[in-house]
Amino acid sequence: MLNAAIRDILMPKRMARRPINDRGFPVPWFVPKVKGEWDFRAVDPHKMVIAYRQRLCWLCGEPLGQYLCFVIGPMCAVNRISSEPPSHRECAEYAARACPFLSKPRAKRNTVDLPDSKPMSGIHLDHNPGATLLWVTKTYSPVSDGRGGVLFQIGHPREVQWFAEGRAATRAEIVAAMDKGLPYLRELASIEGGEKQLEANIAKAMKLLPV
């Protein structure tokens, strides 16, 4: 039985083949079991390698086609880097609409009794960005995060779609989400001497916003 909050959201056939947890949410393929229970806060590190090498959807675990969809936040739109592999377009849209963290801007990450696991690569902002971007491309490639981890450089966008609160996001909502995260990127750029490149990347990202 699906959770009442997502019962009316059309579920893709591939996601419908995934197990349902005790709260009524479909379990993404990358989620591991911790002490016998699905823990949505954790990522199975082995799945990262499998997804890349076998070209599998990060959310349903089934083979991808030529178009790849990344579920990313506003800051990833600036640096064109994702910490997770791509998914099917329909699986990604379902996540943007149904995932409690992505669809509820005021939601916070539950950090109580976090499982012992390898941290995700790259630098992560703990706040909820308030907007989610689906970035459809045909190419991506692994890159080092400089700390022994792997990130993914995402290719030229063939299509983009912004979401907030499980629906199409307004330009104002996206700008507010970007304003929340840009100070962190600017601080990092000032340390590394990349201010000019960052501002150029921001200008490119702004062109992806709806009019």
Helix and strand arrangement:
Elements: H1 13-16, E1 33-34, E2 37-38, H2 45-54, E3 68-72, H3 74-79, E4 81-82, H4 89-98, H5 100-103, E5 132-137, E6 140-144, E7 150-154, E8 159-164, E9 167-168, H6 171-192, H7 195-206
Antiparallel strand pairs: 1-2, 3-5, 4-7, 5-8, 6-7, 8-9
Distance between the termini: 39 Å
Helices and strands, in order, run as HEEHEHEHHEEEEEHH
Class inferred from helices and paired strands: alpha+beta
The proportion of strand residues reads: 15-25%
Number of domains: 1
- Helix segment tally: 7
Count of individual beta strands: 9
Major beta sheet, specifics?
4 strands, antiparallel
Mean pLDDT: 90
Low-confidence stretches: none
Rounded radius of gyration (Å): 17 Å
Shape call? globular
Can you give the helix content as a percent range?
Answer: 25-40%
Strand order of the largest sheet: 3-5-8-9
